[in-house]
Design a protein that fits this description.
alpha/beta; Nitrilase/N-carbamoyl-D-aminoacid amidohydrolase; 5-stranded mixed beta sheet; globular
Amino acid sequence: MTGSRATPATIRAAAVQIAPDLDTAAATLERVLAAAAEAAARGAQLVVFPETFIPWYPYFSFVHPPVATGAEHLRLYDQAVTVPGPVTAALAEAARRHAMVMVVGVNERDHGSLYNTQLVFDADGTLLLRRRKITPTFHERMIWGQGDGAGLKVVETAAGRLGALACWEHYNPLARYALMAAHEEIHAAQFPGALVGPIFAEQIEVTIRHHALESGCFVVNATGWLTPEQKARITPDPALHGALSGGCMTAIVSPEGRHLVPPLTTGEGILVADLDMGLILKRKRMMDSVGHYARPELLSLRLDDRPAVPMHRAAAPSDTLIPGRRRDVRDPAGADADPSADRGDADQRAAILRRQAG
């Protein structure tokens, strides 16, 4: 594979399915650090955690009407992650200590807005990617702002070329294609888990296996988990507990679309599998969807990867506009120009006007 650094022939990857702490970000962070240490002890060089796991996914917004979510939404603001900040510092230190690439989903607070953000830390602790989900889904739109195209990119990590998407971004084929066109070798997928019911787990499996096949890459997917006590805390209505169940499909999939280990669909646990990077070329030899199997003269993607910002400052011109000339011109000499030249031009124009008037 091409890239600025050599990818090892085999990468040991881990996908984590655990429950958050619903009280504080600090407590959930401790769960993340403990799971990262366990994955590292099992030889993992890459570990992926669920969507917006720190402090927790906003499950409340799925089972309560917007008018009743104000207090929980504000509590999420209070516990959300700033980038950079104490949480990112702790995650970077863990990645460095274990020499392991870490992909962690967080609720990011940026002043008055929250975002569904994916953080990718390299094995030396460097934060390589902070990307925001481009379109929150249904109930999530009351919680998070929208991301931009700046995050639709692949980064070089110690584990290989890595791209990431969250949840139903995988239903946006052009978002996936942007990462495919950047030649991702490993795709980190994150879903909330414990949501919608068993059909969600089935849909996740179809989605990640298809992306592995289409992209010719490995997919490491992590989903979250809720205990019965946590469901009861989120909503006391037993009729809504089914909406907070199922939807778990933590899995590691090869470029051939196969599970490398049995997926985890219930309870907590860590999946670990060895990724034979040679399988990427074996798949792409037959079908490279952004190479010999593409038809860019017929079909292509236009990506605006500029960061979206609310204000643009107009830069002051570096040269000086000189008024009153026969035609306005920019004087490259600026303030250092000889003013006598302008006076001479002005005198000539005044003489012409006087003759015309006479």
